[in-house]
Structures are given as C-alpha cells and as structure tokens.
Design a protein that fits this description.
Number of helices: 5
Number of domains: 1
Number of strands: 5
Protein name: Rhodanese-related sulfurtransferase
Largest sheet: 5 strands, parallel
CATH superfamily: Rhodanese-like domain
Radius of gyration: 17 Å
Helix content: 25-40%
Organism: Lentzea fradiae
Strand content: 5-15%
Order of helices and strands: HEHEHEEHEH
CATH class: Alpha Beta
Structural class: alpha/beta
GO molecular function: transferase activity
Strand order of the largest sheet: 1-5-4-2-3
CATH topology: Oxidized Rhodanese, domain 1
Distance between the termini: 44 Å
Keywords: Transferase
Shape: globular
C-alpha cells in the first residue's frame, strides 16, 4: 500500500465539511490582496498582532495594530466585523494567540495564512511609518 493512502481518504461529504470548516478559520493573502485592490474590505479588518515596533517597521496596508500580549479585557471594536489576524509567518503563532484573545472577547476572527512573510513572498506591498528601519524587521511577538 502507498504511504499516501495508508490512511484512507475521507468520504466526500466528510471532506467537504472539514475543508469548509478550515476555510472558516483562515483567509488567503491573495484573496485579501484582491479585496484591497478592489477597495472592498467590507466586513473585515486586518489586525497585526505583533509588537508596535514591528507594526511601525512593516505592515499590510490598512492593518491596525493589536499586539496579542497587550490586549485589554475590553475593546471598543465593531462586533459585526471579522478580525483577520496576522503575524510574521507560519513559524510564529502571534496571530493564533491574537485571534484566540479576540474570540474569547466575543469577536469573530480568522487568521491570515502565512502572515506578512507569505504576503511579501507573493509580491504584495507593505507600508511603514516614516523613518522606520524596514530592513531590520524581526518577529517582535
């Protein structure tokens, strides 16, 4: 038996439910970029969950900074929106921690697949504060 099929594939209905559930938790950088190009981010906000220093140096255009370590118990956010959290990369879990903290406070959340690293690898633009040293960005989670 092949290694790939050592464990049988799920039936189509189970597979469809699994992948639909997975998409309920993740957003794709390409989809977000297409929304930004179209000027249509209706219904969601991008949330950078790293430290303010990382946000100042480099961020996805239009994102807000809510460092997961510093989230207060009460937030003045629109409960009708979805908060798409991102951090450095797949190797960083600040977006997961931020999404968890927001969900525990009653907000709907998703995570941006691959973080800002996947965003940049796809060739999408970033912005920074004037005078920030973009060349020395580290996770700063």
């Amino acid at each position: 038996m092949s290694n790939a099929l050592r464990f049988p594939a799920a039936d189509p209905d189970t597979a469809a439910a699994f992948f639909a559930a997975e998409l309920a938790f993740e957003a794709d950088p390409d989809d977000v970029h297409r929304d930004l190009l179209a000027g249509d981010v209706t219904g969601y906000v991008l949330v950078e969950t790293r430290a303010p220093e990382a946000f100042a140096r480099e961020r996805i255009p239009g994102a807000i900074n809510l460092p997961y370590r510093d989230l207060p118990e009460r937030l003045d956010l629109d409960p009708s929106l979805v908060y798409v959290c991102y951090c450095e990369s797949f190797q960083c879990n600040a977006a997961t921690k931020g999404a968890l903290a927001l969900a525990r406070r009653g907000y709907r959340v998703k995570r941006l697949s691959g973080g800002i690293t996947a965003w940049k690898e796809a060739g999408y633009p970033v912005e920074s504060d004037e005078g920030a040293d973009v060349a020395k960005v580290a996770c700063h989670c």
